[in-house]
Amino acid sequence: MKFYYVYVLQSEKDGNWYTGYTSDLKKRLQEHNKGYNFSTKNRRPWKLIYYEASLNENDAKARERYLKSGMGKRYLRNRLKLFLDHKSS
Question: Which of 4, 12, 25, 48 has the most CB atoms within 10 Å of its CB?
Answer without folding.
Answer: 4
